[in-house]
Amino acid sequence: MSAKKKALIITDGTKEIKTAAKMISGALNGFKVKICEAEKFSGTDLLPVNLFIIGCEKPNPASFGYLKEFLLHINLASRKCGVFSTKEKTLKYLCGIVKDCEADLGEPLSVKDEIKNSALKKWLKEINK
């Protein structure tokens, strides 16, 4: 029996983002998912995962200070990554902080409207190729 893949979803803790994170978690079939807020994030949380997903409402939230610094100094080239937000400007910010760690970043997901489960599964399939 093969071990389940592991995924980590890191959020800013805002209501809309937490709701989207729960939807993403529910659509991640075959994964053991942990959702954590950025202020409680530890670098060791990221080490055992196959996939990590980051979401926040506004660019550069104070709670992302450690996460941003951590991603600057680690190579995650073997990991898959996705980012999501309610705002286009924030999606650009999230793509920027992930760039230096060299993770395999998929297309950003806008969650400003209700996300259909089929669209969510398609997005997850794309970032987890």
Could you explain the architecture of this structure?
- There is one protein chain.
- The protein is of the alpha/beta class and 129 residues long.
- It has one domain: Flavodoxin domain (Rossmann fold).
- Helix content is 37%, strand content 22%.
- The protein has five helices and six strands, in the order βαβαβαβαββα.
- The protein has helices at residues 15-27, 43-46, 65-72, 88-99, 117-127; strands at 5-11, 31-37, 51-55, 80-85, 104-105, 109-110.
- Strands 1, 2, 3, 4, 5 and 6 form a six-stranded parallel β-sheet that branches.
- β1, α1 and β2 form a beta-alpha-beta unit.
- The longest helix has 13 residues, at 15-27.
- The model has no long low-confidence stretch (mean pLDDT 92).
| Counted beta strands | 6
Order of helices and strands: EHEHEHEHEEH
The CATH topology comes to Rossmann fold
Indicate how many domains the architecture comprises. Answer: 1
- Identify the quaternary structure here: single chain
Main sheet record = 6 strands, parallel
Estimate the helix proportion, in percent: 25-40%
Strand content: 15-25%
Radius of gyration: 13 Å
Structural key phrases:
six-stranded parallel beta sheet; Rossmann fold; alpha/beta; 22% strand
Topology of this structure?
Blueprint: E1 5-11, H1 15-27, E2 31-37, H2 43-46, E3 51-55, H3 65-72, E4 80-85, H4 88-99, E5 104-105, E6 109-110, H5 117-127
Parallel strand pairs: 1-2, 1-3, 3-4, 4-5, 4-6
Task: Give the structure's gist in a few sentences.
37% of the residues lie in helices and 22% in strands.
